[in-house]
Amino acid sequence: MIEGGNQALYTFGKLRTVSYFWYISMSSTPSEASPPRRRLSREERLQQLLEVAWQLIGAEGTEALTLGRLAEQAGVTKPVVYDHFVTRAGLLAALYQDFDARQTLLMDAALDRSEATLASRATVIAGAYVDCVLTQGREIPGVIAALASTPELARIKEEYELIFLEKCRAALAPFAAPGTIATAGLRAMLGAAEALSHAAATGEISREQARDELFDTIIAMVERSARRGAGPV
């Protein structure tokens, strides 16, 4: 009886000893290390910061966009953001360049697929402009407005506008005698495009209404050029 009891006590003690060392062993075994985070390239970091900046503008408005706030939202240090943009004006310029690059890709691809008719080219230009603004939502009107705040930013916007206008001129010129579109007409078209897209982005009019009205504006501009001939450019 005693012997059996001693055996039981010995066994219990032995099990406790084994369990203790097993616990220590398991606790001291290093867990599977999570893979190290891949460091983003400079271009990848730039794209991340731009995406966060667009989200910040969409949620809080352009006024809330500062380099410090962007760093906080992106989960990076301020020097990382300053290394990419230096100033708030530089950030706004980069956002507009990002918007313009996507708009250009969209329109170029659509023009390449379009038929060589005035209606087809006008449809592409109207659709690409309105759709790109609406894809960006209410953020882009605020950025465009902010670009007019300083002469430097206004010049950047002007440069990209000229590129867009020349692209439109090249696409539409074959349908206007004697093969060119006056700058005044292109400027009127751009003003209509901005106003209609802004109205669609704020919900004042629908996407379809904005596209249809801009289409009609483009057709009318080209037809006037065809009737009058080329004006001064």
Task: Describe this entry's structure for a reader.
The chain is mainly alpha-helical and 233 residues long. It folds into 2 domains: 41-86, Arc Repressor Mutant, subunit A, CATH 1.10.10.60; 97-228, Tetracycline Repressor, domain 2 (Orthogonal Bundle), CATH 1.10.357. Helices cover 77% and strands 0% of the residues. The protein contains 10 helices and no strands. It has helices at residues 2-28, 42-60, 67-74, 78-85, 88-113, 118-136, 139-147, 151-172, 183-201, 207-228. Helix 5 crosses helix 7, helix 6 (118-136) packs across helix 9 (183-201) and helix 8 crosses helix 9 (183-201). The protein is elongated. It starts with a helix and ends in a 5-residue tail after the last helix.
SSE topology:
Blueprint (H helix, E strand, L loop, with lengths): L1 H27 L13 H19 L6 H8 L3 H8 L2 H26 L4 H19 L2 H9 L3 H22 L10 H19 L5 H22 L5
Helix pairs in contact: 2-3, 3-4, 5-6, 5-7, 5-8, 6-9, 6-10, 8-9, 9-10
Average of the residue pLDDT scores: 82
- Percentage of residues in strands: under 5%
- Low-pLDDT regions: 5-31
The major β-sheet equals: none
Report helical residue fraction: over 70%
- The geometry reads as elongated
Structural domain tally? 2
CATH topology of the largest domain: Tetracycline Repressor, domain 2
Organism: Pseudomonas chlororaphis
Protein name: Transcriptional regulator, TetR family
Keywords: DNA-binding
GO molecular function, one term: DNA-binding transcription factor activity
